[in-house]
Amino acid sequence: MKKEIGKWLLDVAKYVATAILISSFLGGLTPKWVMYVSGLIVVISLLIVGLWLINNNNK
What we know:
Number of strands: 0
Number of helices: 2
Oligomer: single chain
Structural class: mainly alpha
Helix content: over 70%
Low-confidence stretches: none
Distance between the termini: 13 Å
Shape: elongated
Order of helices and strands: HH
Largest sheet: none
């Protein structure tokens, strides 16, 4: 169960990274650094938790 949640979190991290990339090209958001910083924090945290859940399942 934890492994599946970890895989799901990795997928969500990929989707968030893709959304940030696409919105940076298409969007008219004025403070782009806010979008980049918040997106990077979300992606990194989801990756860490997802990888931890996947690796923790083996023990």
